[in-house]
Amino acid sequence: MNVGDPVQVPKTSPETSAERLRDTDLANEIEFMTARARSVGSGRANSMLAGLDLRVRSYSVLSLACSGQNPSQRELANFLSLDPSQIVALVDLLENRGAVTREQDPRDRRSKVIVATPGGRELYLQAAAVIQDAEDQSLRDLSPTEREQLRSLLRRIAFETAE
Amino acid sequence: MNVGDPVQVPKTSPETSAERLRDTDLANEIEFMTARARSVGSGRANSMLAGLDLRVRSYSVLSLACSGQNPSQRELANFLSLDPSQIVALVDLLENRGAVTREQDPRDRRSKVIVATPGGRELYLQAAAVIQDAEDQSLRDLSPTEREQLRSLLRRIAFETAE
DNA sequence: TATTGTTATACTCTATAACTATA
DNA sequence: TATAGTTATAGAGTATAACAATA
């Protein structure tokens, strides 16, 4: 087909037009599908977290603050693949609403360990339930076995590069 | 453990500190792993596409323009989950470098069909090879069978909601 | 000299509303 | 009136550089 040829598109309804594009090379690329799954998933998670005045990024920090692992800001930055300066803003946000505190690491006074307050833990419990609902929606077409398959495969590509 | 308790973190090297956070609830959430896989994947893809002066978003539009499906801008917006105004900017970019053209849909003069020029098709061939390399890197720890499993599972969660 | 947290800045991505031309 | 493309704008996400305190 040449570029100058007259455009001939089978007349379709708006609903089927996107179906048509699912048969393209792009739609079968892992990078594309991953990006699309994330777009759908985080969009849904953000909407569902709005009632708690959280977003996925602040939820992530809160979750790690509740993990019992006592992460420093630097560790949060590394693990969440965010710049340390972004962690500052996220921790500020959570600290201002009383959900977490910055505690001095007695072994290194440069480092600040982020821990959740009792209120922060309560907030996290609610948020974790919301995220569980969001995940159930994302995975609603998959069987329990398939969900674990996907989790296992995703883990291997999500954590391969940066540690 | 109470919030006021002294912070006790096992002294670890920077490399193992992030390992430690992989045992948290957050790290096992589908939403989180998907977001992280996308972050790693699209970051790598953007880096590798830089030599062709493309990014994943402009590559996506170019790819669909080369698909033979003659998508309209509206169809691109729907399929790529982007606002129509973003498509304008992306098509402008590709049109200005001679990779695609806007062609009037003879059946609806409001609609513009995006088709690749011969130069655009040549650019796409190079870019598609780059994306293939990027995908191979993302999936390097998976067997061929596992890659197809992941592709199949991802497809079912990526295309479930919007059509 | 190197690292942690911080501030500042700019660029990309995303979301929304309003306008025009066609249907 | 409804839809396709466009323009404009604001907010969220990402990346980089520089600085003070500490190691």
Task: Please give a structural write-up.
Two copies of one chain form a homodimer. Chain A has seven helices and two strands. The longest helix of chain A has 21 residues, at 118-138. By secondary structure, chain A is mainly alpha-helical. Chain A has helices spanning 14-21, 30-49, 56-65, 73-80, 84-96, 118-138, 144-158, and strands spanning 100-105, 108-116. Helices cover 58% and strands 9% of the residues of chain A. The model of chain A is unreliable at 1-15 (pLDDT under 50). Chain A has a two-stranded antiparallel ribbon with strand order 1-2. In chain A, β1 and β2 (108-116) form a beta hairpin. The first copy, chain A, binds a DNA duplex (23 and 23 nucleotides) through α5 and β2.
Q: Which short descriptors sum up this protein?
A:
homodimer; 163 residues; mainly alpha; two-stranded antiparallel ribbon; 58% helix; elongated; disordered N terminus; DNA-binding
Write a compact overview of the structure shown.
The structure is a homodimer of 163-residue chains. Helix content of chain A is 58%, strand content 9%.
Oligomeric organization of the protein chains = homodimer
* Largest sheet data of chain A: 2 strands, antiparallel
Order of strands, main sheet of chain A, comes to 1-2
Order of helices and strands of chain A: HHHHHEEHH
- According to DSSP, the number of beta strands of chain A is 2
